[in-house]
Amino acid sequence: MERRRLAVVSNRLPIVLKKEKRGRWQIESGSGGLVTALGPVLKHRDGLWIGWIGTNAEETPAGPLLGDLLSLGTRETGYSLKPVNLTREEVRKYYFGFSNEILWPLFHDLFSHCVFDPTYWTFYEQVNRKFAGAVVQNTDQSDYVWVQDYHLILVSRELKRLGARRDAGFFLHIPFPPLDIFLKLPWRFEILEALLEYDLIGFQTVRDLRNFIGCVRALLSCKVTGSKYLNRILLHDREVLVGAFPISIDYDEFESLARTSGVADTAWIIHANLPRRQLILGVDRLDYTKGIPERLLAFGHALARYPDMRRKVNLVQVVVPSRGGVEEYGKLKQEIERLVGEINGRYTDVGWTPIHYIYRSLPRPELVAYYKTCEIALITPLKDGMNLIAKEYCASNIEEKGVLILSEFAGAASQLHQNALLVNPYDRQRTADAIHTAFLMTHDERQARMRRLRRSIRKNDIVNWVNSFLQAGIAQDLRDFPRAEFFVPSPNGDPEPVDHLPG
After folding, report:
1. Residue ranges per domain, the chain?
2. Is 173 considered catalytic here?
3. Are 81 and 75 in contact (CB under 8 A)?
4. C-beta separation of 310 from 349 below 8 A
5. CB 67 within 8 A of CB 36
6. Stretches in the chain below the pLDDT threshold 50
């Protein structure tokens, strides 16, 4: 069989370059669902990741220094890293502009946040062309190119304009809107036609798939055939596969980490400092789609409505900084902190502060310790493609004592709805009722629900997600992308192959 590489193309590399105060450059591991999901898939399989380095081209170190940093990143991640450099203006108009002031809010049904600046589209095309050029330089026709998310919808179109032939798939991590919302996009035809340049398009849920097909039928008059989960769109010269492929996590990694002594010790410390209370956990990136203010208001309503919860629960709300310098996100942070202060000011009693607010990114072992020890997870986005936090919480809940409260508008709800408590995050009263229901839930019911949640996530883990996509796209699975061999010296001086990176 022909040897192939899996080449992932995304807006960001899975590492971040940062410059210390002394002027020394260092790398840090990237965060977010995509890194969590795809890292284990590419690791030690001769995988390749193409993405933006995370700094402006005007500030990025050049020459041997950049090469050394990327080599270090490759050693730490276990797969090759190929950077795409973006100028300050490209970052502002492609990333913050078209991607996050147009596509992000529109696809999350938050039209009021959209800024339809026509110059954004020019830079969106320009940067997608730059990414396509990086694909041409770093892959060949035997590789499978897997493009990720809304930042890079045009890459396959640009590859063809460059005359490059690649098997290419695209996966959208955020929701796809229904026709009446998508119609508001001035570049609606260009976006649809560019998506149809891929061989396979993947969505998180059947709802997103149906929304896309509805737009294609209405605007392009294409014929569509197929089943509920996988469809064929027939064009004049070829066909495009479109399907629903819910993303998942590396279940075994989270479960194993939750069983380590370090995590157990941290979990004990957390509960020892908050004794005789049920802990409610919220973990979110700072973003207006995550519904954090709505969640805080619902928690405050629960304390007002159900006095029996007072002094017996704590909400631990973790907010991970995001898109620093964007005015709208700064205002959101202020609103969150105002609500935290207001609720704590109203209900705090001697020895009890209802909300513990953490504004920073947590190291994974510490995060897993919270997953393991918190009796309730309150995950209530206004709209989410999937929400991997929900799955991580369940995988780490090895004592099976947790209750998952989940928004109806998270993609994860389609898989986990039978055993989670589903809520409408806009319905403050019923969300408060769900918190109280979770608070009173018996141990036996908690255990039965969590056991079924964990079983479902274990069965449909990250490898299953990758394999389902690759099987649909090129009739291959992860095993067809061989593990890479690295060589280390043996005691007699001869090189010996190993199937993983040293160190």
Report:
1. 6-247+461-478, 251-459
2. yes
3. no
4. yes
5. no
6. 1, 485-503
Look-up of token digits 């279940």 = 251
Q: Which amino acid is at 116?
A: F
Q: Clarify whether 113 is annotated catalytic.
A: no
What contacts 195, CB < 8 A, 6 or more positions away?
153, 170, 201, 212
Per-residue pLDDT, 32: 63
Of 108, 151, 173, 301, the catalytic one is 173
Structure tokens at 14: 């899975």
Q: What is the pLDDT of residue 186?
A: 98
Provide the CATH number for the domain formed by 251-459 in this structure: 3.40.50.2000
Sheet containing strand 355-359, edge to edge, reads 355-359, 313-320, 278-285, 376-379, 403-407, 421-423
pLDDT at 29: 74
Length of the chain: 503
Residue type, 268: W
- Give the list of residues 6+ apart from residue 14 with CB closer than 8 angstroms, or none: 29, 30, 35, 38, 39, 49, 51, 73, 77, 81
What pLDDT does 284 receive?
A: 96
CATH class of the structural domain 6-247+461-478 = alpha beta
CB burial of 286-321 (b: ≥16 within 10 Å; e: otherwise) equals bbbbbbbbbbbbbbbbbbeebeebeeebbbbbbbbe
Structure tokens at 163: 């005359």
Q: How many CB atoms lie within 10 A of CB 96?
A: 16
Domains 6-247+461-478 and 251-459 share a fold: yes
Q: Which one from 143, 284, 384, 433 is the annotated catalytic residue? A: 384
| Distance (Å, whole) CA 440 – CA 77 | 43
The values of phi and psi at residue 190, to 5°, are -60, -40
Position 278 scores a pLDDT of: 97
